[in-house]
Every structure is written in structure tokens, then in C-alpha cells.
Amino acid sequence: MDFTSMLLFSFASIVFIFLFRFLLKLFSSTGRKLPLPPGTLGWPYIGETFQLYSQNPNVFFASKVRRYGSIFKTHILGCPCVMISSPEAAKFVLVKGARLFKPTFPASKERMLGKQAIFFHQGDYHNKLRKLVLRAFMPEAIKNIVSDIESIAKDSIQSWEGRLINTFQEMKTYTFNVALLSIFGKDEVLYREDLKRCYYILEKGYNSMPINLPGTLFHKSMKARKELAQILGKILSTRRQMKLDHNDLLGSFMGDKEGLTDEQIADNIIGVIFAARDTTASVLTWILKYLGENPSVLQAVTEEQEAIIRSKEECGEEKFLSWADTKRMPITSRVIQETLRVASILSFTFREAVEDVEYDGYLIPKGWKVLPLFRNIHHNPEIFPDPEKFDPSRFEVAPKPNTFMPFGNGTHSCPGNELAKLEVLVLLHHLTTKYRWTVVGTNSGIQYGPFALPQNGLPIRLTQRS
Ligand code: HEM
Ligand SMILES: *[C@@H]1O[C@H](CO)[C@@H](O)[C@H](O)[C@H]1NC(C)=O
Hints:
The chain is of the alpha+beta class. Helix content is 56%, strand content 10%. The site of protoporphyrin IX containing FE has 26 residues, from helix 6, helix 13 and helix 18.
């Protein structure tokens, strides 16, 4: 290098350093000056919680979106928060900038489900759990339990015949049994009743005040939780003695090289039951409601399912449904998609900013909650024309990225979505081909909390098709 080029080089370096410092300063100062998103924070502390809970929460969100646009601030449950309802913002919070937003739940939920459950974590521990959960619920794994799910479905439907049933309650039993099957495999039936008894006591405390004094709901729940952990302990030690490999979720947790503690396993099994049961049961309940209200759609689903029975008879195949059969149900699958969209049973999810975040020219301060509003995206007329209308044919064209997220997106998206769709398809196969149902009572309202459900769980009467 000669002298002049050295001089030039040093000069260039100095200019570069100055420029860099200038830009850094510019960024940090604009960082401080960024405005908060529009909106009101309401009265201190009580905030807008009262408004949120005193009306259909979707009306609350929708009126805010109308007033302030797709990103606004508000105050709920004592926390300042930013609500977002555009596909781009949802992608930022859940996928692209996921590192900047951690999941967050009320403390009482964390104590019920167990602090080590997958939902509450980020980083290495979360990745490890997620790998283990996905391994148990991916198509290759659940392919093997289609016929077991089918027997559970047939038993359930048979037990409803001729009775007045509460659809949601009965669907909860079905989805609970399928969840246990996917967790414990065939061992499931041995522990079914004990696990069910404890879990049903536990869930009564989910939304109770977290006061751990004898006699309170919360106290009873915590006791049931301990008993659940004891039953799990028994199952674990039996499996360890037998030294057999299992293809279910428990097998996946136990087989991990890095080793999960019994407590971590218990927290995550209770967590998976929690995530799997009511969600899937409420989707099933909504499907029965929509099919009942749309006879032509029910007819189309029935014909699709009958065609599967016929094709199996013609080939002389065995009577059990196979994984491949469930992939030949496009009409029924679109009914599930449309139900997930219209009902949007998880209307939104919670995150918390782990540092000051800039988004779209706004500041989201560290510690603020961030809520992607799935339901508002699913009911945006620009994305889904005539959004309140139940019309499965709209899914003949695949939805655009981040406009349809019934199972979320990104690092915390639902690992159970394939299983959920599978158990719904299997139940609908038997229900539509052999039975018809009528809704009892004229109450067509919706009940809220924790998620939307037809009033009274949709009481129906089921009869064999003539
Ligand atoms: C139709 C039924 C279901 C719906 C609508 C649903 C929806 C969701 C959504 C939206 C999330 C993401 C929440 C967030 O990002 O904050 C999620 C997470 C999760 N779901 Fe589902 N789910 C369903 C069924 C199931 C089933 C059957 C299982 C288990 C077999 C399951 C297990 C989980 C777990 C473990 C997570 C947490 C994942 C993580 O934090 O990494 N879900 N679910
Ligand atoms: C999740 O986000 C990715 C990246 O933006 C996108 O490609 C994908 O389609 C999204 N998934 C859903 C269900 O929208």
C-alpha cells in the first residue's frame, strides 16, 4: 500500500466511523421520540376491563379498530397493552419479531398448569419441548392411531343416541379421551377414569381467584393437581420398569436424551390436555350448529363421506378409516376451516414486549402486553367478503399468508393442529353418514368466556338417519 492510498483509507475509515455514530445517534434519539399507538388507556388500573367484559368482547375490539385503525393502545386487566389486527402486524409479533415478544398468562393459570409447561417459555427449553411435542403429533405419528380414534368416536356417538345431550359437554368427553390416547397410547383406558376425575376438579379452578385457603375452588384445584401428578408418577415408574418404547407423547418426553424431570413431564402433560380438550370440543360444537343451519352444506358433507364408505366397500378394504381416507375429504375440511374462521374460538392471544420495540412508526414500550386479534383479521371484509356468512366454498382458494391463523403462527403455533383436524374429520364421518340431530330450545345466543360457545353448549337430540 503506498502513502496516498493509506491516507485515503484512513480518511475513509474516519468518515465511516463518523457516519456510523451519527446514524446510531439518529436511531436512538428517534427511538425515544416515537409516539405510542393511538387509543385511550381508560381509567387508571380498572382501565377498559369493565368495557371489555360487559359486552361481547368482539364488539369492543371491532369498535376500537373502527376508531383507531389496526393498531391501538388500551388498558385491560391492569396492564397497558397494544392490540393489533393486521396480517402484517400479526406476522411481526408472532413470526418475524417473535424474539421480542414473550408469551404471558395470568399467574393463576401458570400455577394450575404448572410453571414448566411449554406455553410459558421461550428459547432453548421451549425449543426442546416443542420438538418433543411435534414428534408425537406430526402426521407420521398420528397416522397410527386413526382407527383407535375411530373407536372412541363410535362409542361416543352411540352413547348419545336418543338422548337429549349437551353437545359441548359430550364433545369434551370425546376430545379428552382422544387427548389421553395421544398422550398415553393404549395404556390410556387404564387410567382414564382417575385422570378424568382429577382433571375435572382441576379445571374448575382455572378462572378462580388464586387464593389457596381450605375450601376455596383454587385450593381444591391445587389438590387435584397434586393427585394428577401422583397418577402420572405411577405411570412413569411402570413404564421405566417395563423398558418398552412408546410412540405417544409420554414416550416422546421420556425418551429425550437430555432428560426431562418428572415435574416437567407432569406440567406439560396437564398443559397439553388443557390445550387440546376444550378448543377442539368447542370447534365440534360450532360445526354441529353450522351444519344444522346449512342443510345444503350438510348434504354435501354427507355425500362426500358416503363416497368414502362406498369406495372402501368396492375395493374390499377393511372397514376402518385410514389416514389416506381422511385426506380425501376436501368438502368436510373446508367446513372445518370455515368454522374455525367464523367462530374464531381463540379470538386473540397474549404476548409481552421484552424490550422497547418499534413497529410501524410506533413505540411499543417494554413490559406492555401485545394482543394479536385473530378474530378481527378473520372477520375483516377486505380479506373475507361478507365475513359473518358461513360459506365453506371461500376456502376453495387458499387464504393469503397471515390472514387465517386459527392455530396461530410462528414459534408458538399449535403443534396439535393435525390431530385436532383428524379427530374432527373422524367424528364427522360417522355422525353425518348415520345420524341426524335437532337443536333443542330456541336460544341461539352465544356465551363468552374463556371462548365463544353456542348458548348452553348447544343442547341437541340425536337420532339414526332414516
Ligand atoms: C381446534 C382445536 C385447536 C385450536 C383452535 C388450537 C389453537 C391454538 C393456538 C392459536 C395456539 C397458539 C397460541 C399462541 O400463539 O399464543 C395453540 C398452541 C398450542 N396448542 Fe393448540 N389448538 C387446538 C387443538 C390442540 C390440540 C388437539 C393440541 C394437542 C394435542 C394442542 C396443543 C397445543 C400446544 C401444546 C400449544 C402451545 C405451543 C407452544 O407454546 O409452543 N392444541 N393452539
Ligand atoms: C406464517 O408466517 C409465514 C411467514 O410470514 C407465512 O409464510 C405463513 O403463511 C404464515 N402461516 C399462516 C397460517 O398464515
